[in-house]
Design goal:
Layout: E1 7-11, E2 32-33, E3 36-37, H1 38-48, E4 53-58, H2 63-69, H3 73-81, H4 89-97, E5 99-104, H5 111-117, H6 119-122, E6 127-130, E7 134-137, H7 142-153, E8 156-162, E9 172-176, E10 183-191, E11 202-204, E12 207-210, H8 213-220, H9 231-240, E13 244-248, E14 252-255, H10 259-271, H11 274-293
Parallel strand pairs: 1-4, 1-6, 4-5, 8-13
Antiparallel strand pairs: 2-3, 6-12, 7-14, 8-11, 8-12, 9-10, 9-11, 10-13
Helix pairs in contact: 5-8, 5-9
Bound molecules: uridine 5'-triphosphate.
The site of uridine 5'-triphosphate has 21 residues, from helix 5.
Length: 294
């Protein structure tokens, strides 16, 4: 068994209902920020964190994700002939640095079930989980920050960020032992509590490092909130055994599963591109002025 984190599971089998109607036929993960599918940013975070194998958990109608990270020999030949091969460079770079594997979740029974689906492919070693809905830009990348804590502590952990009281019902919230931070022992975890039931304001936005014990725990769980097998319930079991930590990561996070968060991330990515920054700023200012005068 490797004690190093080499593999990352990317659950991507969900329906993406918040992005209907487009998700009726296009996987949410493939919706672009400017010109790059959202999921590529997640993969870049994983690869920059030292991950060598990406395990997508996909479903029917999601083959576009696998195709995207596969080679496209005819397109490569065409671009090579016209001297434009660098248009595919960002994906090429990722493919040279890690291996892509896909497993199918036959029925969407929840995030916990999606993670469990990767059991055979992960094997008996610790691994990372990254949710594509959460885009986190940081240096070092969020997953790298979590892997460093894992290397010190050896148990499972979650990345956390502080949210406003009225936001607790959108996230898994951890109950942490008092301490100086940024890493805390977790005493309990609860999925989407109302502000009055929330044990803290530390929310888990979709970054985890897990030991393989999680699979055995997931197998014992009955469906929880929403009739789904919840990863949060399995993490709560680890917390009850004092085997879970939470690390307040550094980085800029966008909730790209939400339409407003998606728009903000789009603008962020556009403004980070040297060739787009000036024109996008001018366009936004013009647009705001037009709005103000209408
Ligand atoms: P969400 O609960 O956000 O669902 O799943 P969703 O389908 O992606 O989006 P909405 O809320 O309907 O708009 C959190 C993550 O878990 C994955 C999703 O793909 C997403 O990355 N997931 C969820 C699965 O892989 N399988 C499931 O059965 C459920």
């Amino acid at each position: 068994m490797s004690s190093r984190i080499r593999k990352a599971v990317i659950p991507s089998a969900g329906w993406g209902t918040r992005f209907l109607p487009v998700t009726k036929s296009i996987p949410k993960e493939m919706i672009p920020l400017v010109d790059t599918p959202m999921i590529q940013f997640t993969i870049e975070e994983a690869v920059k964190s030292g991950i060598e194998q990406i395990i997508f958990v996909t479903s029917r109608h999601k083959s576009a994700i696998e195709d995207y990270f596969d080679r496209h020999v005819e397109l490569e030949a065409l671009l090579k002939a016209s001297g434009k091969l660098d248009l595919l460079k960002s994906i090429e770079d990722l493919r040279n640095r890690c291996e892509f594997v896909a497993v199918r979740q036959a029925e969407m029974k929840g995030l916990g079930h999606a993670v469990w689906t990767a059991k055979q492919t992960v094997g008996d070693e610790p691994f990372a989980v990254l949710l594509g809905d959460d885009l986190i830009f940081g240096e070092p990348p969020c997953t790298k920050q979590l892997i460093r804590v894992f290397e010190e502590r050896g148990t499972s952990g979650v990345g956390v960020m502080q949210v406003a009281a009225e936001e607790t019902q959108k996230y898994g919230i951890v109950d942490v032992a008092a301490g100086p931070g940024p890493t805390y022992s977790v005493k309990g975890m609860i999925e989407k509590p109302s502000p009055k039931d929330a044990p803290s304001r530390f929310a888990v936005p979709g970054r985890y490092v897990l030991t393989p014990e999680i699979f055995a725990i997931l197998e014992t769980l009955s469906p929880g909130r929403g009739g789904e097998i919840q990863l949060t319930d399995a993490l709560a079991v680890l917390a009850s055994k004092n085997q879970l930590w939470a690390h307040e990561f550094e980085g800029r996070r966008f909730d790209t599963g939400d339409r407003l968060g998606f728009l903000e991330a789009t603008i962020h990515v556009a403004l980070s591109r040297p060739e787009l920054k000036g024109p996008v700023r001018a366009m936004l200012e013009r647009k705001l002025q037009e709005e103000g005068t209408s």
